Amino acid sequence: MKKIMTMVSAIMVAATMNAENVETEAFTETLVNVPARVRFVKGDNYSFSVESENKFIAESVKAAVKDGTLYFSLKNGLSVEEASENDLTIVITAPGMPEFKTSRNMKATEIKSVNDDNSNSFTYNK
Prior knowledge:
The chain is an alpha/beta fold. It has one domain (2-125). The chain has three helices and ten strands; from the N terminus they run αββββαββαββββ.
């Protein structure tokens, strides 16, 4: 239990750094509850980064891995509307593409096919 809490704490702290790549434990699903563009990149390790021109918005995204699922949500105090007004991108790297899910109040509005650089892009909006 202590190891899981340490990993979650490390992920949450590191996610507040704009565009810094954070390595994490393995996951097979990703649950996105944030209005963001999500980009998948095939790679050897499991990691993610949160990118935005607005540092406050980037720092307001929290992430955690639990039971094989990588969760993204907004910290308390930031509304979905505020986050929607900013260009927010989450880049997820893994050896294989995880299953992407979202909450009932968010939906995938755009799904692009595999790009030449082995990446996929998804956009989630309210």
